Amino acid sequence: MTEQHEEHERHAQGFERGTDGPKVIVAGVDGSDSSMRAAAYAAGLARRQGALLAMVYVQPVMTAGAALGAPVAETTDEIAEDLVQQIREATERLKGIFEVRWEFHTFRGDPYNGLVTASDRLKADAVVVGASEQAGHRIIGSVAIRLVKAGRWPVTVVP
């Protein structure tokens, strides 16, 4: 078999995720400045690659004890609605300048497991997240570090 024929055989067997540039880029958003910068960075990647930008907000699930004091579910729903509104306004402002195909998804859970679930379900080729703004994450590890260690997707961390 010639080298060209072997190359053709590999292509004929189907698309290998991540080798032809990302087709689905997942961006984790939570309303923080770093997550919004990550979404903007991911939008640029999606535009240049002709990929779908999937923005994912993971709604925290509170324990029964923590939920007694406040209407937590309503609060996280409001955050999700506010994020969608911010994203829509940003895409309207850029319409005609940059065209990006995008979707917004919400998942429930802790940020790490929520992003893993989202990335699996959406068949992500790449994941973009903001750097953690919480001091405690330097000790126990941020979501970004855990995603990198999972080794399942290329992960970009935006400061």
Topology:
Elements lengths: L2 H10 L11 E5 L4 H17 L2 E8 L4 H4 L4 H23 L7 E7 L2 H11 L4 E5 L6 H4 L2 H8 L4 E4 L1
Helix pairs in contact: 5-7
Descriptive overview:
With 159 residues, this protein is of the alpha/beta class. It is built from seven helices and five strands. It has helices at 3-12, 33-49, 64-67, 72-94, 111-121, 137-140, 143-150, and strands spanning 24-28, 52-59, 102-108, 126-130, 155-158. A five-stranded parallel beta sheet has the order 3-2-1-4-5, with helices on both faces. Helix 5 (111-121) packs across helix 7. The N and C termini lie far apart (48 Å). Mean pLDDT is 76; it is low at 2-15.
List keywords for this structure.
159 residues, alpha/beta, 5-stranded parallel sheet, 5 strands, 48% helix, globular
Short structural description:
The protein is of the alpha/beta class.
How would you state the average pLDDT, rounded? 76
Overall morphology: globular
C-alpha termini separation: 48 Å
Q: Strand content of the residues, in percent?
A: 15-25%
Q: Considering DSSP H and I runs of 4 or more, what fraction of the residues is helical?
A: 40-55%
Lateral strand order in the biggest sheet? 3-2-1-4-5
SS class: alpha/beta
Outline the biggest β-sheet: 5 strands, parallel
Low-confidence segments, given as residue ranges, are 2-15
Radius of gyration: 18 Å
